[in-house]
DNA sequence: GCGAAATGTTTGACACGCCAACAATTTAAA
DNA sequence: TTTAAATTGTTGGCGTGTCAAACATTTCGC
């Protein structure tokens, strides 16, 4: 077995580096993910926000940001954009006058469902190299990696 | 089976999205990778460059950039830094007066080997949640994903 | 020999993550 | 109850990384 690719480059030191391989593989799937989202005029990051709000209506911006593990300052421009697209709305919370409760509009719900179908189809369309059951196994292993984040 | 995490958030739409899970997992391993590199005053991107030059001495900057799938303009500052650390040197190519041939210095070879041990140890130290043989399986599957990049 | 392509390089735009502030508000402590 | 500490949304700055375009020098194809 060789450590060369088709260009004759020796990748020995990177061959068994999960950090490197995960990055390259993530870039590949990001393209798939991105292309599906772009068809609906949106980015993968914005889709993940919609996906969270869809199943968790009423969440605050901070709650969404911690759910997705992004900085809450990044949420401002994101919700601004989704609100300008009329798929998300900020409602003033009665309990806490500091925060907003986030909801999808009717248009937003339909938009998110269509987006979800498109993204899922885009990924499934790219799974031809996977053997039976491998996808589920991969998702499970990735979950374990994510869960082991802090001092597993 | 629930789609909630420990905070009671419903992740249904993201639960089986490889694009999302790969990104999260990559972030986790990037931290491991980054920490190991930081101990030697370097970044994961610079390590990958060293790893390529280590096993492929004499490569041009463009060859390294295509091998790592990064823009060749990004190579300039990277090699500048590695040269200032005296681990890499640009030698003028006799055949092609446009390009440089990249080589590791003796110091650079030792540096890269120590770095490689540290990065590998950092990853192995984080593999406790993996079952026997799972790591090889994962690396193989990631390779297939990367190889399927263009029109799989 | 002449036009096309490659190499290293610079530059500018753009996005993104990270961190530090800040005002308004809520919570906890004394 | 008064006061200190924490939270929320928001802005701004800084560093990074990506991407595209341009450029001079040099090489390659015809």
Automatic annotation (TrEMBL), chains A, B:
The protein's name in its UniProt record: MarR family transcriptional regulator
Occurrences of domain HTH marR-type (ranges): 15-147
InterPro entries (alphabetical): HTH_MarR-typ, WH-like_DNA-bd_sf, WH_DNA-bd_sf
The UniProt record lists the keyword DNA-binding: yes
Transmembrane segments: none
Taxonomy, superkingdom: Bacteria
Keyword Transcription: yes
Keywords from the named record: DNA-binding, Transcription, Transcription regulation
A Pfam family per the record: MarR
């Amino acid at each position: 077995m060789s450590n060369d690719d088709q260009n004759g480059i020796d990748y020995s030191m990177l061959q068994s580096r999960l950090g490197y391989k995960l990055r390259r593989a993530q870039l590949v799937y990001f393209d798939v993910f991105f292309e599906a989202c772009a068809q609906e005029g949106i980015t993968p990051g914005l889709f993940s926000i919609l996906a969270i709000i869809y199943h968790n209506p009423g969440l605050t911006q901070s709650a969404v940001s911690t759910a997705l593990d992004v900085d809450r300052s990044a949420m401002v421009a994101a919700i601004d954009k989704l609100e300008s697209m009329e798929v998300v709305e900020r409602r003033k919370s009665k309990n806490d006058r500091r925060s907003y409760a986030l909801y999808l509009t009717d248009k937003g719900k339909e938009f998110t469902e269509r987006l979800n179908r498109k993204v899922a189809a885009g990924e499934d369309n790219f799974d031809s190299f996977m053997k039976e059951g491998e996808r589920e196994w991969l998702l499970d292993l990735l979950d374990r990696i994510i869960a082991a984040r802090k001092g597993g």
